[in-house]
Amino acid sequence: MSNQAFIELENVQKVYGQGGKNPYMALSDVTLSINEGELVSIVGPSGCGKSTLLMILSGLTSHEGGTVRVGNETTSFDATRDVGMVFQQALLLNWRTILDNVLLPAEILQMPMKPARERARELLDLVGLSGHENKYPKQLSGGQRQRVAIARALIHDPKLIMMDEPFGALDALTREKMNLELLRIWEASGKTILFVTHGISEAVLLGSRIAVMTSGPARMAAAIDVDLPYPRTLDMKTHEAFGAYTRQVYGLLGM
Ligand SMILES: Nc1ncnc2c1ncn2[C@@H]1O[C@H](COP(=O)(O)OP(=O)(O)OP(=O)(O)O)[C@@H](O)[C@H]1O
């Protein structure tokens, strides 16, 4: 593995509608570096540019100022193949089975289907859904559908997984269970994960680091190292150190 960070953002700026009547500065100054295999939580108020940042990294939108580098001297990065995304809604195709939903990116990227099918079964096992391969999305709970979305994000073995409020639509208990599942999947897969959330305790529970963004104008306020041991457990939320991290984040957000 390279000593060079996997993602390097320096003074990144994003202006929507540049050159038009109403340009809007969605990001004014974002500087952050992320190593391979890190799970970084990104927290910040609504509208502070979290999704914009993910879109820049996935090559879906441009940036106007600063520099963005993804990949390093030992690990190349091609945004069209090396990104897996998970959104707040699972966005499954109702007419396709669970297995065929997981296979969708493999089809789009024209991967050889026989090994992809095998890999899809392994991933469904990894996310705790073996035995559900031939069901349809409507037969699954919200939490199960998000597990399918995670398996789908992993099928093409991307180097970077970006998750945008993936558990925001789940009830509190399912969300906590999914947090633990995600930690297990992260440790098993070794992937670099960026995890956007509004939940401060979720950010602390998951992240090896927390990038705190503030708005007006949107910028990166701080990146906090979270020195809590892995595997993380829910009872850590009652520990003094956990409380200290959440207080620090609330403080940075001015709350
Ligand atoms: N295509 C666009 N054109 C103009 N403005 C946009 C566009 N997309 C986003 N914005 C604006 O940029 C700002 C940042 O949006 P973004 O979706 O990145 O924020 P966010 O932090 O992800 O918000 P939330 O937490 O509510 O999802 C918002 O004020 C939004 O209105």
TrEMBL record:
Keyword Nucleotide-binding: yes
Keyword hit for Zinc: no
One GO molecular-function entry: ATP binding
Domain ABC transporter: 7-240
One Pfam family recorded for the sequence: ABC_tran
Keywords of the record: ATP-binding, Nucleotide-binding, Transport
InterPro entries: AAA+_ATPase, ABC_transporter-like_ATP-bd, ABC_transporter-like_CS, ABC_transporter_ATP-bind, P-loop_NTPase
Family: Belongs to the ABC transporter superfamily.
Entry protein name: NitT/TauT family transport system ATP-binding protein
Protein species of origin: Salipiger profundus
Organismal lineage: Bacteria, Pseudomonadati, Pseudomonadota, Alphaproteobacteria, Rhodobacterales
